[in-house]
Fold this sequence. Notes:
By secondary structure, the chain is α/β, with parallel strands linked by helices. It folds into two domains: about 1-140 and about 305-335, Medium-chain alcohol dehydrogenases, catalytic domain (Quinone Oxidoreductase, Chain A, domain 1), CATH 3.90.180.10; about 145-280, Rossmann fold (3-Layer(aba) Sandwich), CATH 3.40.50. It contains ten helices and 16 strands. It has helices at about 40-45, 135, 140-155, 170-180, 195-200, 215-225, 240-245, 270-275, 285-300, 315-325, and strands at about 1-5, 15-20, 30-40, 60, 65-70, 85, 115-120, 125, 160-165, 185-190, 205-210, 230-235, 250-255, 280, 305-310, 330-335. The strands form three sheets. Strands 3, 5, 6, 7, 8, 15 and 16 form a seven-stranded mixed β-sheet that branches. Helix 6 (about 215-225) packs parallel to helix 7 (about 240-245). The structure holds NADP nicotinamide-adenine-dinucleotide phosphate. The site of NADP nicotinamide-adenine-dinucleotide phosphate (NAP) has 32 residues, from helix 1, helix 3, helix 4 and strand 10.
Amino acid sequence: MKAWVLEGFGLKNLKKLDVPVPKPGARDVLVRVSAVSLNYRDKMVVEGTYNPDLPFPMTQVADTVGDVVEIGIGVSRFRVGDRVISNYATRWIDGPPAVDEVVHTLGNTIHGGLAEYLLLNEDALVHSPTYLTDEEASTLPVGALTAWHALVKNGGLTASQTILVQGTGGVSIFGLQLAAAAGARVIVTSSSDEKLERAKQLGAKDLINYVRTPEWHKEALKVTEQQGVDQILEVAAGRSLGQSIETIRPGGKIAVIGILDGFTSEIPIFPMLQRQVTIRGMVTGSRKMFEEMNEELEKSQIRPVIDTVYSFPDALEAYDHLYRGAFGKIVIRVRP
Ligand SMILES: NC(=O)c1ccc[n+]([C@@H]2O[C@H](COP(=O)([O-])OP(=O)(O)OC[C@H]3O[C@@H](n4cnc5c(N)ncnc54)[C@H](OP(=O)(O)O)[C@@H]3O)[C@@H](O)[C@H]2O)c1
């Protein structure tokens, strides 16, 4: 089969190769891959900032959807023909994770989905929502599940809340869609006025250009009449986390998700105390959360926003787009 395999760090070492189709062992499921979606994390894996000890060669990409074509002995959760999606934290089933349950991820410690076939233990898969296309379903494991975990599971999202999402990437746009569908007020920040306009069409009420207004927290306070916001999806960290603390309503929650502005932050303690803010780190979600989210999606029929779909031979162009930044998600169609 064809697979995009990373042979060393750097995009120049991501190569389309012929590799053997894997054989299912006990409790394994062989998936014929339909589509994958890219995440910022896939860029970090290629660059070596995600896992400096990455074993090579390693087939890339986490988010995968496809159809079950073969099952190993003892598989009970799936049948041949089922449409399935990979869970990012492949060993995290339910409850608080053990340390090793969040580190075993596709394209990192096990081969990923940017290949014609993917072999996974049945524990690492969920059934796909039926109403989504393959391309849409491929966007759920990282971006959508992380936003859902933060806003719904951890944040108890309601119509009366005000939510702030940073930038217009995969996590933030799905967070915007979830919050808008729940009737919440959404503030979006972006470096691009054009992207902010598109966010408005998805239901964002307040729009802040964080390049033109670097002190975006002051603008967020202004539009909320100094009340602040209930929840923030903190995908930037770095200098941004301190600004988020200044923006939170007393008792509000900051879900620390990403590091787009840096791996370390200075935290202003006084506003943190006054606002009694909860800051919580987030790693995607358990399989149970993924299944719960999919049930809710079947009801709300939210359709994830896809910026561009690339073909399998054009995978490197899809990575270039990831490096430039997308509005929502970038997808690679694997099966023609
Ligand atoms: N903890 C987890 O489980 C988890 C899960 C998913 C993602 N993440 C992390 O979350 C972050 C976002 O991931 P993603 O896949 O959604 O990324 P993405 O789709 O590549 O989105 C990147 C977008 O973020 C915005 N951005 C960049 N720098 C920013 C800054 N300093 N402040 C505010 N916004 C900024 C830009 O939007 P504009 O063009 O609109 O400015 C950019 O296009 C990454 O750090 C990723 O590693 C973590």
